Amino acid sequence: MLFAAILATLGSGSSGETQPQTRPRAREAGLKVGVLPTGALNAITDVQGVLVGHTTLIRGENIRTGVTAILPHNGNLFREKVPGAVFVGNGFGKLAGSTQVNELGEIETPILLTSTLAVPRVADYVIDYMLALPENDQVQSINPLVAETNDGYLNDIRGRHISRDDVFAAIKSAKTGAIEEGSVGAGTGTVAFGFKGGIGTASRKVPARFGSFTVGVLVQTNFGGVLTINGAPVGQELGRYYLKDDLSAPAPAQSNPDGSIIMVVATDAPLDARNLRRLASRAMIGMGRTGGSASNGSGDYVIAFSTAPEVRIRLTNQRDASPTRDLKTVTNDAMSPLFLAVIEATEEAIYNSMFRATTISGRGRTVEALPMDRTLEILRKHGLITVSR
């Protein structure tokens, strides 16, 4: 049985600094989330043209951080902007560039995810990258879009170790295809529901009669609450959850709900900025399905964009920057299937971030990966695991 093979391979996921990348994604473990089909890779890169790159920093005893770059396309984003929107679930965060995105409805740089205190430096390095592109030699304003979660439990966050080379490497290594998940990039030092969080991704396709559009989501999980997987009270049954009665338990066992989650949503549906904002808001429902509580100290943000060529904003003249675009957008009445797609993809992306994450130690602390054997047993007990023979 697949289940037995997984258990034999994985064990509890609680020993050592890290485990090999043999931990399954949620769907590989037999968990089916929602009703819509996934894309070919079940990743944000199922949206044609989207690229993702990571720089992971694990150095010495205290540096556990990184950068993740999401590129809507591989061209010059300042010259060929994409429609975009930012939705704020709870605004305890430092999301650079969000006000211009929502004012103009445009994204003009790669989207960077990183550590909280690294945001200003990363934003500066993104500006360096964009100004250095040959076609941008006359550009005098750049709006870098940089989001964060606080990885200070495991990482020397005050050291602000992200360098210009790290940011450039994440952008330049960005690629289509399968994405590395778990304790990588901006997810290297994160914690979710008292277990190791990280980077996760998933996708959904809407039926042909609704346009055959794809919605992809990538998350950086560093938040808490009461972990729920497909409705099963996993956090409770594992004894690690927010407001747990045993107040003498160590901090991770209490699953502090503060932290943050960044959700990046991509779609090939031709959406304008207004409907992208509506789409982004539904990602919060996917987060809620996992047991997240959007606490006072949690920064819960969604960044959404469309890759559809017909809604891109193209600058046709470097001197006067006169824009052109053909607006043929999805109507309001056609949005509902996309709403369900983003809810399901967000939920599964969060599970993947934890299923793939490995145990990490830093600053004299250890955050264990979600124990796969016990988690799968709980899901089996609730009838939520489908096993291939």
CA(first)-CA(last) distance: 5 Å
As for the CATH topology, it is L-amino peptidase D-ALA esterase/amidase
What is the name of the CATH class? Answer: Alpha Beta
Strand content: 15-25%
The geometry reads as globular
Indicate the radius of gyration in whole angstroms.
20 Å
Largest sheet: 8 strands, mixed
> Which bin fits the share of residues in helices?
10-25%
Give a description of the structure.
With 389 residues, this protein is an alpha+beta fold. It has one domain (7-378): L-amino peptidase D-ALA esterase/amidase. Helices cover 24% and strands 23% of the residues. The protein is built from 9 helices and 16 strands. The strands form 4 sheets. Strands 3, 4, 9, 10, 11, 12, 13 and 14 form an 8-stranded mixed beta sheet that branches. A 4-stranded mixed beta sheet has the order 1-2-5-6, with helices on one face. A two-stranded antiparallel ribbon has the order 7-8. A hairpin with an 8-residue loop joins strand 9 and strand 10. Helix 7 (273-289) crosses helix 8 (336-356).
Task: Tag the structure with descriptive keywords.
389 residues; alpha+beta; L-amino peptidase D-ALA esterase/amidase; 8-stranded mixed beta sheet; disordered N terminus
Characterize this entry briefly:
With 389 residues, the protein is of the alpha+beta class. The chain is 24% helix and 23% strand.
What topology does this entry show?
Elements: H1 2-10, E1 51-59, E2 63-71, E3 80-91, H2 98-104, E4 106-107, E5 111-115, H3 119-131, E6 145-149, H4 164-172, E7 191-192, E8 195-196, E9 199-205, E10 214-222, H5 234-238, H6 251-254, E11 259-267, H7 273-289, E12 298-306, E13 313-315, E14 323-324, H8 336-356, E15 360-362, E16 365-367, H9 372-381
Parallel strand pairs: 5-6, 11-12
Antiparallel strand pairs: 1-2, 2-5, 3-4, 3-12, 3-13, 7-8, 9-10, 10-11, 13-14, 15-16
Helix pairs in contact: 7-8
